[in-house]
Amino acid sequence: MIALILAVGLVAMGCVKAERVRGWRTFSNPSAPEISDSVFVLARVVLFGTAAVCVFSGFRLLAVSADAEWSDDELSSVVSQATSELHGTSRFGDTFGDDSGFDQDIAKMIEEEVIENGGGGAPQSGVDAGAAAGNKPSDADYTVQAAGADGAFCVHVVRTRSKDGDYEPPGVAGGPGSVTVPSHDFSVTSREGAC
After folding, report:
1. Which of 30, 69, 141, 157 is 20–30 Å from 104 (CA)?
2. For a pLDDT cut of 70, what percent of the chain falls above it?
3. CA 181/CA 168 separation, integer angstroms
4. Per residue in 31-46, pLDDT tens?
5. Model confidence over 88-146: pLDDT tens digits?
6. CA separation for the pair 37, 47 (Å, rounded)
């Protein structure tokens, strides 16, 4: 915005007539040498050129700030896409099976999927999936919000243990390992509004 205001000031300075500037100069310093017309032409070229650069820079900065924030329509569309992408997927869980970090893991999974589905027009940051109080590893809610958007969406995640998808890495000697990495299937839905 400052660049656009500066551009207006530069254009105003460039529009002042040479006779008026000569009059001000004579009034403030009568012994000053006369300024030629070519100096005024050069000064106008510099002022108008600088004003054009300020206008261009100002609009670029406005475009960058618009790209840094989410709109309600962008968030609505992207949460819907992310929900569709996550629904029916499977992921490996904690090797030790204690599920202590499930809330952070699922919140991060949702945030990454929303950003990934945002594409080139949406910002690549500013998404938050806040876990609801009382979430369980098998049934959890997350309020998805984004910087710049007024709306919020509730993403409901049902996580089911899938023993068919478990992974058993080989042991040190190449035989069967002693650790099983559990697999979980996800059922994901979303609705408008906070959880």
Report:
1. 69
2. 89
3. 6
4. 878 888 888 888 888 9
5. 998 887 655 567 788 888 999 999 998 888 766 667 678 899 999 989 989 999 999 98
6. 15
Are the beta carbons of 160 and 138 closer than 8 angstroms?
yes
Alpha-helical (H) ranges within 15-161 are 18-28, 37-67, 72-86, 102-118
**C-alpha to C-alpha distance for 6 and 27, rounded to whole angstroms:** 27
Q: d(Cα 104, Cα 64) in Å, to the nearest integer?
A: 31
Rounded Cα distance, 105 and 113, in Å: 12
Nearest alpha-carbon partner for 154 in 125, 97, 194, 99: 194
The pTM assigned to this predicted structure is 0.62
* 170 three-class SS: strand
- Say which residues have a Cβ less than 8 Å from residue 106's Cβ, sequence separation at least 6: 129, 131, 140, 142, 157, 159
